[in-house]
Specification:
alpha+beta, Structural Genomics Hypothetical 15.5 Kd Protein In mrcA-pckA Intergenic Region, Chain A, Pseudouridine synthase, 2 domains, nine-stranded mixed sheet, 13 strands, elongated
């Protein structure tokens, strides 16, 4: 990374201001003053400004078990807090959620400051599967379950939409409990799909995105950084 960019990342300053303090001779790399803004900073270099050691945060990839009554947004509203308020990290304002959940929906969300990575998750053209567990208000008979499975697989024309949903994979784990895999993220999509067949979702939980499963050790509201292997799943 160039020295001027390094200072921008570490100190949250403009490129012009970074170049100015570099030219002043107040910045050092591994103990030697450096006045060249284009100087490359190695990963193991020690950069100081006025004898204060600087560091860059780098790109972050976070998994969270989203609790109920929280928002997948960058700010709180009058009713619920943002999930970002649960993170104890620096420069949280740089982060965004890759694929959102409704306030009352729980489960796996991914948080990052890597826009290209999150685009591969959230963009419909990348066809990233999302797996949900849904509790239903009404039990469904075996015949109703089979009909629902076929209907979801064909796609459903939801109210207010101009084209049906993409084919979805529905599996019943109990008469009032189902697993649903979709590849889209339309507004309230899962709830609207079940409403279209005459049922109501009473509880919704996302347990998997693509090949990445929610870490079962995470309690609601808890989070951890993804491993390199997990990041590379997308």
């Amino acid at each position: 990374m160039r020295l001027d960019k390094y200072l921008c990342e570490a100190m949250d300053v403009t490129r012009a201001w970074a170049k100015k303090i570099i030219k002043s001779g107040e910045v050092s790399i591994d103990g030697a003053p450096c006045k060249n803004a284009a100087t490359h900073v190695a990963d193991d270099s020690v950069v100081k400004y006025q004898e204060q050691t600087l560091s860059v945060i780098g790109i972050r990839y976070i998994m969270m078990n989203k609790p109920e009554d929280t928002l997948c947004s960058n700010a709180d509203n009058e009713l619920y807090p943002s999930v970002l308020s649960l993170l104890e990290v620096d420069k949280v304002d740089r982060l965004h959620i890759a694929g959102r959940l409704d306030a009352d929906t729980t489960g796996l969300i991914l948080i990052t400051d890597d826009g290209q990575w999150s685009h591969r998750i959230a963009s419909p053209k990348h066809v990233c599967e999302k797996t949900y567990l849904a509790e239903l208000a009404e039990e469904m008979s075996p015949e109703q379950q089979q009909q629902a499975i076929e209907t979801f697989a064909q796609g459903i024309m939801l109210n207010g939409e101009d084209k049906p949903t993409e084919p979805a994979k529905l599996k019943f784990l109990a008469d009032d409990y189902a697993e649903l895999i979709i590849t889209e993220g339309r507004y309230h999509q899962v709830k609207r799909m079940f409403a279209a067949i005459g049922n109501k979702v009473t509880f919704l939980h996302r347990c998997q995105i693509g090949a990445l499963e929610l870490d079962e050790s995470l309690e609601p509201g808890e989070w951890r950084y993804l491993t390199e292997a997990e990041v590379n799943l997308f």
